Give the backbone structure.
Amino acid sequence: MIRHRCGRSVLVMALGATGTAYHRPPMSQPVVLTSLMIATPTTGWGVGPHALWRTTDGGLHWHAVTPPGGVPPNTAATQALDGTTAWTAVARSDGMVTVQRTRDGGRTWAASHFIIAAAGGVPPAPVQLLFTSPQQGWLLISGSGLLGQALALFASGDGGQQWTRVALQPPIAGLLGFGTTIGWGISTPGQTPPAGFVEVTHNGGRTWQRQSLPVPMGNRTALTRYGPLSFATAQLGRAVLPVTQFTPTGTVLVTYATRDGGRRWDVASSLALRANPTTVLTSFVDAQIGWALAGDTTAAPSLNVTADGARHWHEVTPDIPLTEAASLDVVTPRVGFVLTRRVGSEGVATVLRTQDSGRRWIILRPQIAP
């Protein structure tokens, strides 16, 4: 249940930008990872408790590239655009928001600061960073403990050096994706029916309107979880949006597709997932190629793969069970990574890598690079 706080005012004051080299934390074994952001078959980023890591050998060895101040759990947002460019955002209880950016794989970081103060004493907490290019990005900030209620949406057109508030209390709980100016967000919980709606903006996030999506028969009362929106790299205007719907009769992965930049969305497919999984992870390379990993903490998950924009899916049988998966990153039609919650012999979660579209997997034990 969302309780709306009326009369909140937000004050924003730009404080400028500085350049700082990163601080390397003391080295310790092994590397503890809580999420992955893989860019290429060899290069990627990993987030751990208070730390940021980078690999250049496909996930086996990791370099500490933590920006000054660390990456505090639950109060920081992190995004990697590619193998060398990344951002972190941290909000302090006094309203100070710090965004740090690197363009050289974490060797150096530059910081910008602004203040966001909310009436009522609710401290801010970054929800999501979303950069669509090295220059253009958005930062969604909520009130800490407000269950997804957004305080403000900020935008940057210079790679994160300066930020402008574009919306105060937008009706979104998360960002799904942005084009140049058009973007989509998840409706704030409790404001809309559970299935069939997203929020859309046509002016870079300043104003939002509700957009309806076609809902397969029988799914209108489903609990809905939205996956990230993926754009086509070669065909302008094409995108896919995976949506998991937990219905009274089972779990269904509904994939929406657009060919006109999001003015109209159609159901590309409605995939009934076996064994009623409690967790469904999706990752698309582009608007054509994607994987879906569905399972729970006990049963062996099912892995489904599409190469035609989710019009057709086929199930792949991994050679080892991908149980307790925490994240799925697919970077080419053949190469993918899974981070599991399953603790290995060294007391940390394991990373799994495949190079044949999910059939055979290698178990990696993340280590600090020599």
In short: Residues 9-19+30-168 form one domain.
